[in-house]
Please model this.
Amino acid sequence: PQAGSDLAAVRTRAVPQGDGTYKIFGQKIFITYGEHDMTDNIIHLVLARLPDAPEGVKGISLFVVPKFLLNADGTPGERNDVHCVSIEHKLGIHASPTAVLAFGDNGGAIGTLVGEANRGLEYMFIMMNEARFAVGMEGLALSERAYQQALAYAKDRVQGTEAGVRGGPKVSIIHHADVRRMLMSMKSQIEAQRALAYVVGAATDMAHHHPDEAVRAQNQAFMDLMIPVVKGWLTESSIELTSTGVQVHGGMGFIEETGAAQHFRDARITSIYEGTTAIQANDLIGRKIARESGQTVKAVIAEMRKVEASLAEASGDEFAAMRKSLSAGVTALEEAVAYIVATYGQDIKAASVGSVPFLKLLGIVAGGWQMGRAALVAARRLAEGSGDAGFYQAKVTTARFYADHVLSQAPGLAYSVVNGAAAALAMPEDMF
Model:
């Protein structure tokens, strides 16, 4: 409980029994599905310290601790000494029980070591990378559900006359300019985020399964760079977008019966669990950028410039607007990367002040990159006369909206990354 995100502070103990098993003693909080009756058994993966473990994260081992010990035939047998002492009362995700667990109150919970001693954190991060991607997708799914519900309400809810139509009939609220702006904001960001997440998901598959070792390594580097962005940007955006969904509903969004508020509440945890946004951002600027002097992100920027060049060759105002915003966004990203590479080793606090704005900057520009790619494909399909013309035209229009309303934020974020440290760090604690 005292450790939080600081795993070096874990105090749970594992005592070897001499027969290959260990007795686990300690307490854990925030254990998702730590207790439930949906299965016959629950298997806990537990981080704990052996008696001779070194200090810090290098002394953490990983153990399998079942709720029920198994009989020789594999069926659940005797109850293990791990018990739920309470279920947390949470802001959202009420269908997911979050437990406080006590290990070893009655002699010790029997656990089995996973792999080698003192390598638990290394093993856990294999799971964490997958989990962080999954939580990013959870944020995306909540945003999508909030958009679907808001869109249906906006088409159904009749209120007021259309602006500029004096004495006109009452219209559904999707006819009102700001409601359209809100819906397009939701739609465009969701499409950009889904595209980026799928590209990162494909890179994950390539990193695991491509026959060429060099291609595997290249995709692994891209995946490592972007997973903090998928986790951080998609979840932070889900808080904003589910809130926008409530706003589209107006007063009815604040009423529980419509269900719009549930998406807002449920989204709030996504930027916290499996590593807060700040943890994702610190990982991004430190391990993924500064450590390699921005090598991987610079390669990604080169790919973005290729799409920018293709947009410049496409005809139409939409593509000119996309190219302009993407060009400015990539330039802003380059400026921020250069600052982090130059600053991180000399003044880590100054670089860290801009870590979350940088994560958002990279997400927004990467989303613009993917929206540009999608718009170019859509334009080709329209020129060929193939497929659903309405779908492809909507894709182009949505990409234009993203360029004008979302990607246009990139230079301001870069300014905060490069110039924002002084005021953030200057004030003495007692002046807050």
